[in-house]
Amino acid sequence: MEKYRLQGLTCADCALNLEKKLSEMDSVTAVRVNVATSTLTIECEDIDQVKEKIKEIEHGVTFVESNSLDLRRNLLIIIISSCIFVTGLLFRQYLHDFPFSWPEYAVFLSAYLLAGKKVLQNAVTHSIGGRIFDENFLMTIATGGAILLHELPEAVGVMIFFSVGEYLETLSVHRSHKSIEALLKLRPDYAHLKIDDTTQEVDPHQVRIGDHVLVKPGERVPLDGKVIEGTTMVDTSALTGESVPTRVEPGDTVLAGYITKTGALTVKVTKAFAESSMSRILALVEYAASRKGESQKFITTFARVYTPLVVAAAFSVAVIPPLILNTGFNTWVYRALVLLVISCPCALVLSIPVAYFGGVGKASREGILVKGANFLDALTELKAVVFDKTGTLTRGVFEVAQVVAMNGFTEREVLTYAALSEIRSNHPIAKSIVTASGKSIESDQSHITAYEEVPARGVRATIDEKTIFVGNDRQLHEEMIAHDTCYIEGTVAHVTVDGVYAGYIVISDEVKPDAGKTIDALRKRGISVVMLTGDSADTAVCVAQDLNILRFYAELLPEDKVEKLEEIKKEIGNGTIAFVGDGVNDAPVIARADIGIAMGALGSDAAVETADVVIMTDNLYKVVKAVTIAQKTRNITWENILFVLAVKGGFIGLGVLGMATMWQAVFADVGVALMAVFNATRIFRG
Predict the structure, then answer these.
(1) What SS3 state is found at 579?
(2) What is the DSSP letter of 392?
(3) Is 388 a known active-site residue?
(4) Catalytic option among 388, 594, 612, 669
(5) Within 13 Å of residue 23, how many CA atoms lie on the same side as its CB?
(6) Are 378 and 251 in contact (CB under 8 A)?
(7) What's the Cα-to-Cα distance from 364 to each of 199, 230, 302, 618, rounded to whole Å?
(8) How far apart are CA 350 and CA 644, in angstroms?
(9) Going from the N-terminus, what domains does the chain have, and what CATH number goes with each?
(10) pLDDT digits (tens, 9 = 90+) for 471-530
């Protein structure tokens, strides 16, 4: 798949039509047109053929490196045509007095053709392609009719005003895309590849896994990797939205897009450029902007029905009253032309996508990756949020807090048996037990003759011909091994030796400082909060009481979590339900929820692929921020819809009564579109 930059693409409806027409070409295997970033992603046999096809479909859309030149040229055309127009107005009477008024026509038509060239060309190409009732066709018919009625200044003025509006709309759309485009510019352009004792500046695509790259102070980390030399503070705000720099040192992981602040780093590359966190996130953000929300789908369908109806009404106004009232056609034709200008749907089809682009862009600035406008819509309908415990509500950083020995065993024996049994496990609890053993047990691994992980239970190992089990009490209940069942605060790992209960180890896990604030904020919005955990009931009770969570379920297997989620979903009815987890262990339940939210999963492939919303840091309150951004986007969207329909409805009534001129009609179209677009940009504030 190759990606190309498109110039002149600001209309969401045009982008959909372009994508549809290109996909019908035999030489095109796959295509996606993204109006949010003005890009074409395509897999085809002949790109030149595609370029020619685009000219046929959308005359004003071309392949470019930058659109700044096009904007300047459009502004220059507007200025020149306006100067000609003003000259015509000043000397109109003098020009009109010539035979057949040909100088008047020459001056005004020159300004008209200069300002309206793109509109006229698009009207022809779109009509040939079957898209008759768009703003270009309607504007052409309306101004052409005004010229036939010898309303030359009005026709030219309307076309210039429309062109000015289109120009300002383009600027507004580009500004609304600014957040996404700024993110796209974060992609590193080069990498300092270390070769022996020298460094060579290369394209990041040329760097392979295992290569070493040098990152100088103030530079952007080009690829994901591990620090092998150097210590520095890094700015992670581009990816996480967090403004406070983070310290990294040898052994730490750094991601593409981080900026070094105080020192140089040597990084061993762990992922190819195309698979780096930055590249994957950029691809998802670009794709997210092209996924429509329900309001956006509604307004696109509505515009396709609404415009033909208004055109039919305009035709009726032009024909029926003169026949019934036996009056001249000129007055009623003029009113019909006014209606045609008013009926242009661009205010609707432009302002709604801009609001969603703004929502997705605002979220990305805050370190929240929302994979589409449809998920922004879903966040506004939240009835319940279900949280995982470990790593989500708690830090997921475990430390051994207590070792209790029973039945003649010593604390050292309990801890050593547990550490040897867990040494081959990568689970955080296992690592905390191994660390707490306080001595190197690598040499003792020769005593381990068998090892087995018991799913959702723990581990079983044979050490010095003794069978050791370390895990939760579910397995102990199944084997009917008597053990301590008193209330214990924290995560508990029980230890048995040859079926005899040896004792237990208490592992503490601290609740995140912003967890309580997050849950309170969700409750104030009328959203229910539930906690699901695979941990023991005692530990779950502790966390639930600490955070004032009234409903929770403990000792759940992954499939049990999905089952509980289904039960909660049935209870809430039509609303949506979100699951918030760490994105790796909770992949099944994240995928099943209406909205899957992965926490602190910037470097996790599983989270980025599975979740619908990815919180790029461990800041739990960003769940509330995501809901706030979604609600603000929805509010602005419906403000625009109601405002545009109200103004257009009012002007249609005035137009039928003959109380609206074509100038006012253009305001009802272009002016209202601009006001709606400016309103949509409010999403970036606050």
Answers:
(1) strand
(2) I
(3) yes
(4) 388
(5) 11
(6) no
(7) 34, 30, 30, 15
(8) 11
(9) 2-66 (3.30.70.100), 208-271 (2.70.150.10), 395-510 (3.40.1110.10)
(10) 887 788 888 888 765 556 667 889 999 889 999 988 877 888 899 999 999 999 999 999
